[in-house]
Amino acid sequence: MDLDQLLSVIRQVCQIEDRKEVTAMLNFYHDLGVIVKHGQTVVLQAQWLIDLFKQLIIVPPFDEADPSHRKWWRDLEVNGILRIALVDHVFSKFIDEGLCKQDILDMMELHGLIAKFSIATDETQDEQRYFVPTQLTSSPSALCKIEPSGCDPCPLVLHFLDGFVPHGLFPQLVSKFIHWCSENGLKETPQLFNNGARLFIGKQITFALILICRKRFIKIVLKTRNPSSCKSQWMNASNKMAIEVRNFIERTLDGFSRDLSWLSNLRYELSVVCTYCLECTRDLHKKTSCDQDDCLHLLRVRPGEELICPKNFCDETVSPGWEMWFEVPHTQ
Fold first, then answer.
1. Structure confidence by residue, pLDDT tens digits, 9-43
2. Which end is more exposed in the chain, N or C (fewer Cβ atoms within 10 Å of the end residue's Cβ)?
3. Cβ-contact 272, 155 below 8 angstroms
4. pTM of the complete model
């Protein structure tokens, strides 16, 4: 129900005229979980709201879908993309109920059911879209095995100190990256998966930006596309791009902590995987790689400080290339 409509009913039935008193009462019942209040929308029955959410993100059987919107349902089923045209179609059933479409979408985004993104174009207005994490397929094994080239920094790890990646953070981070990458290079449609994404960034030199979400960390891989050789030109370009990516990550996570109440206590460290311990676990498990998060030794990185692994008694460099995420390249 629209908030103004509810206020009118409360004045007539409850004889409460003061808007501040009504707002305080609604906020109180919202905190108790009796109602759901967001923006100009007040939901008196939670099950009704859940059913509405389901209508937006669950693909109906083929013979039950409106033929004029089947291609949008197909896009949601195959690619996990929720188009505004499909949102408008679903909401057309509730137009007489005074429903605020944006409030409902904001609530779905708040609970991690959808994530908003847009791709910057040369046109005056970007097309707003959403992706639905539950409709995305798992990351292919090839995506998880992508490694940087010799010109690029080693993978950067966002290590969350509470032992898990906060619910809903990864889709929000991906959505921010999509728009930022489209503003700083190619207008390519990103490849999205349930626990990973591949985007493209760069103008003169193109980079692939891979994000992999695990239980307690998010791995960021920056890889130069088709480098002719690892000359200083390519290394400097990769160095500059790595610094821009890291700065964007820190700005975005700071914004999440400030703007999103459930992420206000966000605690994380910028880390890298210890290459010395990685080889030890491979020997121990008789595998070329280990997919167990707990087997990885993560080293926190700080500008100007050397990485030291207490288990490494040789002079071998630990996680070579991590400095490229922080140090400004030298001009030639």
1. 888 888 888 888 888 988 898 889 898 988 888 88
2. C
3. yes
4. 0.80
